[in-house]
Design goal:
Elements lengths: L2 H29 L2 H24 L1 H6 L5 H17 L5 H10 L3 H27 L3 H24 L4 H22 L6 H40 L1 H13 L2 H18 L6 H28 L2 H8 L1 H6 L3 H13 L1 H9 L7 H53 L1
Helix pairs in contact: 1-7, 1-11, 2-6, 2-8, 2-9, 2-10, 4-6, 4-9, 5-6, 6-7, 6-8, 7-8, 9-10, 9-17, 11-12, 11-16, 12-15, 15-17, 16-17
Organism: Rhodococcus pyridinivorans
Protein name: O-antigen/teichoic acid export membrane protein
Keywords: Membrane, Transmembrane, Transmembrane helix
Protein backbone atom coordinates (compact mmCIF):
# COMPACT_ATOMS: atom_id res chain seq x y z
CA UNK A 1 0.00 0.00 0.00
CA UNK A 2 1.47 3.37 -1.04
CA UNK A 3 1.89 6.26 1.39
CA UNK A 4 -0.91 8.30 -0.23
CA UNK A 5 -3.27 5.33 -0.15
CA UNK A 6 -2.48 4.71 3.53
CA UNK A 7 -3.29 8.36 4.28
CA UNK A 8 -6.57 8.08 2.36
CA UNK A 9 -7.56 4.90 4.18
CA UNK A 10 -6.54 6.56 7.45
CA UNK A 11 -8.79 9.52 6.73
CA UNK A 12 -11.67 7.13 5.98
CA UNK A 13 -10.86 5.31 9.22
CA UNK A 14 -11.21 8.48 11.27
CA UNK A 15 -14.33 9.34 9.29
CA UNK A 16 -15.94 6.08 10.40
CA UNK A 17 -15.11 6.80 14.04
CA UNK A 18 -16.43 10.38 13.93
CA UNK A 19 -19.55 9.34 12.03
CA UNK A 20 -20.13 6.76 14.73
CA UNK A 21 -19.90 9.46 17.40
CA UNK A 22 -22.42 11.62 15.53
CA UNK A 23 -24.86 8.73 15.03
CA UNK A 24 -24.45 7.84 18.69
CA UNK A 25 -25.70 11.32 19.57
CA UNK A 26 -28.58 10.98 17.09
CA UNK A 27 -29.72 7.66 18.56
CA UNK A 28 -29.36 8.94 22.14
CA UNK A 29 -31.23 12.18 21.36
CA UNK A 30 -34.12 10.29 19.78
CA UNK A 31 -34.59 8.13 22.88
CA UNK A 32 -33.59 10.36 25.79
CA UNK A 33 -35.00 13.56 27.25
CA UNK A 34 -32.68 16.58 27.09
CA UNK A 35 -31.75 16.10 30.76
CA UNK A 36 -30.88 12.41 30.31
CA UNK A 37 -28.97 13.28 27.13
CA UNK A 38 -27.00 15.85 29.12
CA UNK A 39 -25.95 13.16 31.59
CA UNK A 40 -25.04 10.77 28.79
CA UNK A 41 -22.99 13.52 27.10
CA UNK A 42 -20.99 14.13 30.29
CA UNK A 43 -20.20 10.41 30.50
CA UNK A 44 -19.11 10.23 26.86
CA UNK A 45 -16.93 13.32 27.18
CA UNK A 46 -15.34 11.93 30.36
CA UNK A 47 -14.16 8.69 28.80
CA UNK A 48 -13.09 10.47 25.60
CA UNK A 49 -10.88 12.80 27.64
CA UNK A 50 -9.32 9.92 29.56
CA UNK A 51 -8.60 8.10 26.29
CA UNK A 52 -6.85 11.21 24.96
CA UNK A 53 -4.57 11.10 28.03
CA UNK A 54 -3.82 7.38 27.73
CA UNK A 55 -3.25 7.80 23.98
CA UNK A 56 -0.57 10.38 24.73
CA UNK A 57 1.17 7.87 27.01
CA UNK A 58 0.90 4.99 24.56
CA UNK A 59 -0.20 5.25 20.93
CA UNK A 60 1.13 8.71 20.05
CA UNK A 61 4.42 7.97 21.79
CA UNK A 62 4.71 4.61 20.02
CA UNK A 63 4.27 6.27 16.62
CA UNK A 64 7.11 8.80 17.02
CA UNK A 65 9.66 6.49 18.67
CA UNK A 66 12.56 5.58 16.33
CA UNK A 67 12.11 2.38 14.37
CA UNK A 68 14.08 -0.71 15.40
CA UNK A 69 14.64 -4.27 14.20
CA UNK A 70 11.77 -6.69 13.68
CA UNK A 71 12.18 -8.41 17.05
CA UNK A 72 12.56 -5.12 18.91
CA UNK A 73 9.48 -3.72 17.15
CA UNK A 74 7.41 -6.69 18.27
CA UNK A 75 8.58 -6.33 21.87
CA UNK A 76 7.94 -2.58 21.81
CA UNK A 77 4.35 -3.08 20.63
CA UNK A 78 3.77 -5.80 23.25
CA UNK A 79 5.02 -3.55 26.07
CA UNK A 80 2.81 -0.71 24.86
CA UNK A 81 -0.23 -3.00 24.79
CA UNK A 82 0.63 -4.34 28.25
CA UNK A 83 0.72 -0.84 29.69
CA UNK A 84 -2.64 -0.01 28.05
CA UNK A 85 -4.18 -3.21 29.38
CA UNK A 86 -2.80 -2.83 32.90
CA UNK A 87 -2.54 0.83 33.99
CA UNK A 88 -6.23 1.75 33.42
CA UNK A 89 -7.30 -1.10 35.74
CA UNK A 90 -6.47 1.27 38.61
CA UNK A 91 -9.68 3.17 37.73
CA UNK A 92 -11.91 0.21 38.56
CA UNK A 93 -11.99 0.65 42.35
CA UNK A 94 -12.89 4.38 42.40
CA UNK A 95 -15.30 3.74 39.54
CA UNK A 96 -17.19 1.00 41.38
CA UNK A 97 -17.27 2.93 44.68
CA UNK A 98 -18.48 6.09 42.97
CA UNK A 99 -21.06 4.22 40.93
CA UNK A 100 -22.60 2.76 44.10
CA UNK A 101 -22.44 5.88 46.27
CA UNK A 102 -23.24 8.74 43.89
CA UNK A 103 -25.99 9.76 41.50
CA UNK A 104 -26.59 12.12 38.59
CA UNK A 105 -23.52 13.61 36.91
CA UNK A 106 -20.98 11.92 39.16
CA UNK A 107 -22.56 8.53 38.61
CA UNK A 108 -22.08 8.72 34.84
CA UNK A 109 -18.52 10.00 35.38
CA UNK A 110 -17.76 6.93 37.53
CA UNK A 111 -19.36 4.66 34.94
CA UNK A 112 -17.03 6.20 32.36
CA UNK A 113 -14.04 5.32 34.57
CA UNK A 114 -15.00 1.66 34.48
CA UNK A 115 -14.94 1.33 30.69
CA UNK A 116 -11.60 3.08 30.15
CA UNK A 117 -9.48 -0.14 30.31
CA UNK A 118 -11.11 -1.66 27.23
CA UNK A 119 -11.28 1.64 25.36
CA UNK A 120 -7.63 2.47 26.05
CA UNK A 121 -6.44 -0.95 24.93
CA UNK A 122 -8.43 -0.88 21.70
CA UNK A 123 -7.16 2.64 20.95
CA UNK A 124 -3.56 1.53 21.48
CA UNK A 125 -4.17 -1.46 19.24
CA UNK A 126 -5.07 0.97 16.44
CA UNK A 127 -1.74 2.77 16.83
CA UNK A 128 0.14 -0.53 16.86
CA UNK A 129 -1.42 -1.29 13.48
CA UNK A 130 -0.48 2.19 12.24
CA UNK A 131 3.15 1.71 13.23
CA UNK A 132 3.11 -1.61 11.38
CA UNK A 133 1.48 0.18 8.40
CA UNK A 134 -1.54 -2.15 8.68
CA UNK A 135 -4.03 0.67 8.14
CA UNK A 136 -6.67 -1.60 6.61
CA UNK A 137 -6.72 -3.84 9.68
CA UNK A 138 -7.04 -0.81 11.97
CA UNK A 139 -10.01 0.42 9.94
CA UNK A 140 -11.72 -2.99 10.02
CA UNK A 141 -11.43 -3.23 13.82
CA UNK A 142 -12.79 0.30 14.25
CA UNK A 143 -15.78 -0.43 12.01
CA UNK A 144 -16.59 -3.50 14.10
CA UNK A 145 -16.38 -1.58 17.38
CA UNK A 146 -18.38 1.42 16.12
CA UNK A 147 -21.13 -0.82 14.71
CA UNK A 148 -21.48 -2.64 18.03
CA UNK A 149 -21.59 0.60 20.04
CA UNK A 150 -24.22 2.13 17.74
CA UNK A 151 -26.39 -0.94 18.19
CA UNK A 152 -26.06 -0.63 21.96
CA UNK A 153 -27.02 3.07 22.01
CA UNK A 154 -29.91 2.57 19.58
CA UNK A 155 -31.39 -0.17 21.75
CA UNK A 156 -30.47 1.27 25.16
CA UNK A 157 -31.72 4.83 24.60
CA UNK A 158 -34.86 3.48 22.93
CA UNK A 159 -35.58 1.38 26.03
CA UNK A 160 -34.81 4.35 28.32
CA UNK A 161 -31.86 2.58 29.93
CA UNK A 162 -30.30 4.84 32.61
CA UNK A 163 -27.44 6.91 31.12
CA UNK A 164 -24.85 5.50 33.54
CA UNK A 165 -25.75 1.93 32.57
CA UNK A 166 -25.66 2.75 28.85
CA UNK A 167 -22.15 4.15 29.34
CA UNK A 168 -21.14 0.83 30.92
CA UNK A 169 -22.57 -1.11 27.98
CA UNK A 170 -20.54 1.00 25.53
CA UNK A 171 -17.37 -0.45 27.00
CA UNK A 172 -18.27 -4.09 26.33
CA UNK A 173 -17.21 -4.29 22.62
CA UNK A 174 -13.81 -2.66 23.20
CA UNK A 175 -13.22 -4.75 26.32
CA UNK A 176 -13.79 -8.00 24.43
CA UNK A 177 -11.95 -7.04 21.24
CA UNK A 178 -9.09 -5.19 22.92
CA UNK A 179 -8.14 -7.82 25.47
CA UNK A 180 -8.76 -10.72 23.08
CA UNK A 181 -6.42 -9.27 20.48
CA UNK A 182 -3.88 -8.26 23.13
CA UNK A 183 -3.69 -11.80 24.50
CA UNK A 184 -3.28 -13.14 20.95
CA UNK A 185 -0.24 -10.86 20.63
CA UNK A 186 1.04 -12.34 23.91
CA UNK A 187 0.67 -9.00 25.66
CA UNK A 188 -2.38 -9.00 27.95
CA UNK A 189 -1.95 -7.73 31.51
CA UNK A 190 1.59 -7.32 32.87
CA UNK A 191 2.94 -5.02 35.56
CA UNK A 192 6.56 -5.72 34.58
CA UNK A 193 5.80 -5.11 30.90
CA UNK A 194 4.09 -1.84 31.83
CA UNK A 195 7.17 -0.74 33.73
CA UNK A 196 9.38 -1.59 30.76
CA UNK A 197 7.20 0.53 28.50
CA UNK A 198 7.36 3.48 30.87
CA UNK A 199 11.14 3.20 31.12
CA UNK A 200 11.55 3.29 27.35
CA UNK A 201 9.00 6.04 26.68
CA UNK A 202 8.89 8.14 29.85
CA UNK A 203 10.39 11.37 28.51
CA UNK A 204 8.21 11.60 25.41
CA UNK A 205 5.13 10.07 27.01
CA UNK A 206 5.14 12.42 30.00
CA UNK A 207 5.48 15.43 27.72
CA UNK A 208 2.63 14.28 25.49
CA UNK A 209 0.31 13.47 28.39
CA UNK A 210 1.07 16.80 30.03
CA UNK A 211 -0.19 18.56 26.90
CA UNK A 212 -3.18 16.26 26.40
CA UNK A 213 -4.18 16.34 30.07
CA UNK A 214 -4.28 20.12 30.29
CA UNK A 215 -6.37 20.50 27.15
CA UNK A 216 -8.74 17.69 28.08
CA UNK A 217 -9.24 18.97 31.63
CA UNK A 218 -10.13 22.44 30.38
CA UNK A 219 -12.75 21.03 27.99
CA UNK A 220 -14.22 18.78 30.70
CA UNK A 221 -14.36 21.61 33.26
CA UNK A 222 -16.08 23.85 30.72
CA UNK A 223 -18.82 21.28 30.11
CA UNK A 224 -19.33 20.78 33.86
CA UNK A 225 -19.43 24.57 34.28
CA UNK A 226 -22.17 24.85 31.67
CA UNK A 227 -24.12 22.10 33.45
CA UNK A 228 -23.60 23.75 36.87
CA UNK A 229 -24.11 27.44 36.08
CA UNK A 230 -26.54 26.87 33.23
CA UNK A 231 -28.61 23.70 33.03
CA UNK A 232 -28.30 20.09 31.91
CA UNK A 233 -30.27 20.85 28.71
CA UNK A 234 -27.84 23.70 27.96
CA UNK A 235 -24.94 21.35 28.65
CA UNK A 236 -26.54 18.85 26.27
CA UNK A 237 -26.79 21.59 23.62
CA UNK A 238 -23.15 22.61 24.19
CA UNK A 239 -21.99 19.02 23.83
CA UNK A 240 -24.42 18.41 20.94
CA UNK A 241 -22.94 21.27 18.90
CA UNK A 242 -19.43 19.90 19.42
CA UNK A 243 -20.61 16.41 18.47
CA UNK A 244 -22.65 17.65 15.49
CA UNK A 245 -19.39 19.07 14.19
CA UNK A 246 -17.89 15.65 14.86
CA UNK A 247 -16.67 15.45 11.28
CA UNK A 248 -14.02 17.98 12.33
CA UNK A 249 -12.72 15.32 14.71
CA UNK A 250 -11.94 13.32 11.58
CA UNK A 251 -9.32 15.94 10.76
CA UNK A 252 -8.01 16.35 14.32
CA UNK A 253 -7.60 12.62 14.91
CA UNK A 254 -6.23 12.11 11.40
CA UNK A 255 -3.55 14.73 12.00
CA UNK A 256 -2.63 13.30 15.41
CA UNK A 257 -2.37 9.71 14.19
CA UNK A 258 -1.98 8.98 10.46
CA UNK A 259 -0.51 12.35 9.44
CA UNK A 260 1.75 12.33 12.50
CA UNK A 261 3.01 8.87 11.57
CA UNK A 262 3.76 10.00 8.02
CA UNK A 263 5.65 13.11 9.18
CA UNK A 264 7.57 11.25 11.89
CA UNK A 265 8.98 8.64 9.50
CA UNK A 266 8.92 10.51 6.18
CA UNK A 267 12.36 12.10 6.24
CA UNK A 268 13.82 15.32 7.62
CA UNK A 269 11.31 17.96 8.71
CA UNK A 270 12.94 21.05 7.18
CA UNK A 271 11.41 24.53 6.85
CA UNK A 272 9.93 23.91 3.40
CA UNK A 273 8.27 20.69 4.52
CA UNK A 274 6.91 22.38 7.65
CA UNK A 275 5.41 25.23 5.60
CA UNK A 276 3.83 22.80 3.15
CA UNK A 277 2.48 20.64 5.98
CA UNK A 278 1.09 23.70 7.78
CA UNK A 279 -0.81 24.81 4.68
CA UNK A 280 -2.17 21.28 4.20
CA UNK A 281 -3.32 20.93 7.81
CA UNK A 282 -4.92 24.39 8.01
CA UNK A 283 -6.68 23.94 4.66
CA UNK A 284 -7.96 20.50 5.64
CA UNK A 285 -9.25 21.79 8.98
CA UNK A 286 -10.85 24.94 7.57
CA UNK A 287 -12.41 23.20 4.59
CA UNK A 288 -13.96 20.51 6.76
CA UNK A 289 -15.44 22.99 9.25
CA UNK A 290 -16.80 25.24 6.48
CA UNK A 291 -18.41 22.28 4.72
CA UNK A 292 -19.97 21.09 7.99
CA UNK A 293 -21.37 24.53 8.78
CA UNK A 294 -22.85 24.87 5.30
CA UNK A 295 -24.60 21.51 5.54
CA UNK A 296 -26.02 22.28 8.99
CA UNK A 297 -27.27 25.73 7.96
CA UNK A 298 -29.07 24.24 4.95
CA UNK A 299 -30.50 21.33 6.93
CA UNK A 300 -34.32 21.62 7.10
CA UNK A 301 -35.63 22.21 10.61
CA UNK A 302 -37.94 19.20 10.35
CA UNK A 303 -35.04 16.90 9.48
CA UNK A 304 -32.93 18.31 12.31
CA UNK A 305 -35.72 17.62 14.79
CA UNK A 306 -36.23 14.16 13.31
CA UNK A 307 -32.57 13.32 13.85
CA UNK A 308 -31.87 15.00 17.20
CA UNK A 309 -35.29 15.68 18.73
CA UNK A 310 -35.56 18.66 21.08
CA UNK A 311 -31.75 18.90 21.27
CA UNK A 312 -31.69 20.23 17.69
CA UNK A 313 -33.64 23.34 18.68
CA UNK A 314 -31.30 23.89 21.62
CA UNK A 315 -28.25 23.57 19.37
CA UNK A 316 -29.38 25.76 16.43
CA UNK A 317 -28.50 29.13 18.08
CA UNK A 318 -24.91 27.94 18.56
CA UNK A 319 -24.13 26.59 15.08
CA UNK A 320 -21.98 29.54 13.97
CA UNK A 321 -20.19 29.81 17.31
CA UNK A 322 -19.68 26.06 17.21
CA UNK A 323 -18.08 26.27 13.76
CA UNK A 324 -15.68 28.99 14.91
CA UNK A 325 -14.86 27.01 18.04
CA UNK A 326 -14.18 23.79 16.12
CA UNK A 327 -11.93 25.61 13.64
CA UNK A 328 -9.94 27.24 16.43
CA UNK A 329 -9.69 23.96 18.33
CA UNK A 330 -8.64 22.14 15.17
CA UNK A 331 -5.84 24.63 14.54
CA UNK A 332 -4.23 23.70 17.87
CA UNK A 333 -3.44 20.30 16.34
CA UNK A 334 -1.04 21.91 13.84
CA UNK A 335 1.67 23.01 16.31
CA UNK A 336 0.91 19.96 18.46
CA UNK A 337 1.81 17.64 15.57
CA UNK A 338 5.07 19.49 14.92
CA UNK A 339 6.00 19.43 18.61
CA UNK A 340 5.53 15.65 18.60
CA UNK A 341 7.53 15.06 15.43
CA UNK A 342 10.33 17.31 16.69
CA UNK A 343 10.10 15.62 20.12
CA UNK A 344 9.77 18.98 21.86
CA UNK A 345 6.80 18.44 24.22
CA UNK A 346 8.57 19.90 27.25
CA UNK A 347 9.76 22.99 25.35
CA UNK A 348 6.16 24.20 25.39
CA UNK A 349 5.38 23.22 29.01
CA UNK A 350 5.60 26.72 30.51
CA UNK A 351 3.50 28.20 27.72
CA UNK A 352 0.82 25.52 28.08
CA UNK A 353 0.64 25.96 31.85
CA UNK A 354 0.22 29.72 31.63
CA UNK A 355 -2.49 29.64 28.95
CA UNK A 356 -4.30 26.71 30.59
CA UNK A 357 -4.39 28.45 33.98
CA UNK A 358 -5.90 31.54 32.36
CA UNK A 359 -8.43 29.34 30.54
CA UNK A 360 -9.33 27.41 33.71
CA UNK A 361 -10.14 30.72 35.39
CA UNK A 362 -11.83 32.39 32.43
CA UNK A 363 -14.01 29.47 31.27
CA UNK A 364 -16.12 28.96 34.44
CA UNK A 365 -16.40 32.74 34.99
CA UNK A 366 -17.55 33.33 31.42
CA UNK A 367 -20.06 30.48 31.66
CA UNK A 368 -21.46 31.92 34.89
CA UNK A 369 -22.02 35.24 33.12
CA UNK A 370 -23.02 34.19 29.62
CA UNK A 371 -23.80 30.46 29.63
CA UNK A 372 -22.98 28.28 26.62
CA UNK A 373 -22.47 31.29 24.31
CA UNK A 374 -19.71 32.65 26.50
CA UNK A 375 -18.19 29.17 26.76
CA UNK A 376 -17.83 28.92 22.97
CA UNK A 377 -16.35 32.41 22.67
CA UNK A 378 -13.86 31.91 25.51
CA UNK A 379 -12.69 28.52 24.27
CA UNK A 380 -12.25 29.86 20.72
CA UNK A 381 -10.16 32.83 21.84
CA UNK A 382 -7.95 30.72 24.10
CA UNK A 383 -7.44 28.13 21.34
CA UNK A 384 -6.15 30.82 18.98
CA UNK A 385 -3.89 32.20 21.71
CA UNK A 386 -2.52 28.68 22.22
CA UNK A 387 -1.82 28.27 18.48
CA UNK A 388 0.15 31.52 18.31
CA UNK A 389 2.09 30.78 21.50
CA UNK A 390 3.02 27.22 20.49
CA UNK A 391 4.05 28.36 17.02
CA UNK A 392 6.45 30.82 18.64
CA UNK A 393 7.86 28.00 20.80
CA UNK A 394 8.50 25.88 17.68
CA UNK A 395 10.28 28.71 15.86
CA UNK A 396 12.49 29.47 18.86
CA UNK A 397 13.20 25.78 19.45
CA UNK A 398 14.31 25.18 15.87
CA UNK A 399 16.60 28.24 15.97
CA UNK A 400 18.32 26.88 19.09
CA UNK A 401 18.85 23.49 17.45
CA UNK A 402 20.29 25.08 14.33
Amino acid sequence: MTQRLRLLVGFVNQGVISLGTLLMLVFAARGYSSEALGLFSVGVLTYQILIVIFRALTGETLIVLPRAGRREEKELAARCLQFSGTAPLALIVPGVVGLLLTSGVWQVVCAALLIVPGLALQDTLRHVYLRRKQVGVACAVDVLVVAAQLGIVWFGAGQDVPPWFLILLLGVPTLLIGYFRSFLDRAGVSVSGSREWRRSSRELGDGFVFEAGLGAFVQWLTLLSVAHFGSLPEAAAFRAVITIYGVTNVVTNFLRSHYLSQLAHGGELDRARMRRSTVEMVALTGGTVLFSYGVLELLPESLGEELLGETWMLAVPYLLLGAINRFAAGLTSVPAVFLRVLRMPWDAARTRILISVVTLIAAPLSVAVGGATAAFVTMSIMSLVMVLALSRVIVRGRKKRE
